[in-house]
Design goal:
It comes from Neoroseomonas oryzicola. Belongs to the GST superfamily. With about 220 residues, this protein is an alpha+beta fold. The chain is built from eight helices and four strands, in the order E-H-E-H-E-E-H-H-H-H-H-H. Helix 1 links the parallel strand 1 and strand 2. Helix 4 packs antiparallel against helix 5.
């Protein structure tokens, strides 16, 4: 059976858990990292020398890094919906995955979520946080334009394209921060909330992370 390591409140673990739910893959989930610890054990370090989650193991094969795991699961278990043999079609998801990793996630997760929510109030650099919020409003405006013509980033149905950016929406819309209107993004978020796998994997309370720079 496939095994996933990582704490449920981890943004990167949630991406993997969401896809596992969409694929209906039986698996066991071992809480690791944060208050659960376990990342410094010799056993875990043999799986991932970087000592970070998520990590999966299936039939003796270990994969780490969330987007590498998404691609692995899609290729092995998700064809044709989540993995198309045509590289031209597959590149649609790849583009959104890489954009999320290089644009949205650094400014939102590292800039806004860490800079505002996970940083104690007395230590916050509000000017920097506000710049990151403005950047994220720009990303949401871009997504809003794309989603004006389609229900999901990849087209008419959920695909791998939606998962990295879609995982960010729960925190984006529940943080107590100002946000510019983005009605098509809000409609996309509503569609994602209708999915049991999204609600189970992504809509996880994150209060344990407030004001905690180390965990």
């Amino acid at each position: 059976m496939l095994t996933l390591w990582g704490r449920r409140s981890s943004f990167n673990v949630q991406k993997v858990a969401w896809l596992l739910g969409e694929l209906g893959l039986p698996h066991r989930h071992i809480e690791a990292g944060g208050a659960h610890g376990g990342l410094d054990t010799p056993e875990f370090r043999r799986m991932n020398p970087h000592r970070k989650v998520p990590v999966i193991e299936e039939d003796g094969h270990v994969v780490w890094e969330s987007h590498a795991i998404l691609r692995y699961l899609a290729a092995r278990h998700g064809a044709p919906r989540f993995w198309n043999d045509d590289p031209r079609i597959r590149s649609e998801a790849d583009r959104w995955i890489d954009w999320s990793a290089t644009s949205l996630q650094p400014d939102f997760l590292n800039g806004v979520f860490w800079g505002w929510y996970r940083t104690p109030e007395a230590q916050r650099d509000l000017a920097a946080v506000n710049r990151m919020i403005a950047n994220c409003d720009g990303y949401m405006a871009l997504l809003n334009e794309v989603l004006a013509t389609r229900p999901f980033l990849g087209g008419d149905e959920l695909s791998l394209a939606d998962i990295p950016a879609g995982t960010a929406l729960y925190r984006w819309f529940t943080l107590e921060i100002p946000r510019a209107p983005a009605p098509h993004v809000e409609a996309w978020y509503a569609r994602l909330q209708d999915r049991p796998a999204y609600r189970s994997a992504v809509m996880v309370p994150y209060g344990e992370l407030r004001g905690r720079l180390a965990f």
